[in-house]
Specification:
Low-confidence stretches: none
Structural class: mainly alpha
Helix content: 55-70%
Mean pLDDT: 92
Shape: globular
Strand content: under 5%
């Protein structure tokens, strides 16, 4: 997909150069990334399971392909990422399954997060952890949708898409 905005040319391509359109917002975006990755109290596997489910639902290529070193060091594996859309197909813990389910409901049907589900969630997570998971999901959902809606993709994906589009015409 071609970016839907006129993103300046430069190192790193659209994912990096996008922020030159409004550099004063970059600290806000950086804070949204910093919170989940450097301030979350959740184990990396739980946070990453929720992040990947939202990345799939957002259809955000950058988000789906991203693997933080800190998440890998915290036990996030390709097996973890591979099955978040079908959590019964992988050996997730109860908390990982709940994080995936919460992320999906958060992204697709937040008003469907009823008292019964919250009781299940609070049976496995402390209130502080539920808040943490909610903030993480908000950051993942917002930034992922921003990138997907604006057509911002990794440089190599954008180049492949442009090549396909030019041969199709």
């Amino acid at each position: 997909m071609t970016p839907r905005l006129d993103v300046p040319e430069g190192p790193g391509g659209p994912p990096v150069q996008l922020w030159n359109l409004r550099p004063e917002l970059l600290p806000t975006v950086q804070a949204m990334i910093d919170g989940p990755y450097h301030r979350s109290c959740l184990p990396a596997r739980e946070r990453e399971a929720a992040r990947m489910r939202i990345a799939e639902l957002n259809d955000c290529v950058i988000c789906r392909d991203y693997r933080a070193g800190s998440a890998r060091a915290g036990g996030a594996t390709e097996e973890l990422y591979a099955h978040v859309g079908e959590p019964d197909a992988a050996p997730y813990t109860e908390r990982e399954r709940l994080a995936i389910e919460f992320a999906e409901r958060f992204a697709l049907d937040h008003q469907g997060i009823d008292d019964a589900f919250m009781a299940r969630l609070r049976g496995a997570f402390s209130d502080a952890e539920v808040l943490d998971l909610s903030v993480c999901c908000a950051a993942f959902l917002g930034l992922g949708r921003l990138l997907a809606v604006l057509g911002i993709e990794p440089v190599e994906v954008a180049a492949d898409t442009a090549a396909r589009e030019s041969t199709a015409t």
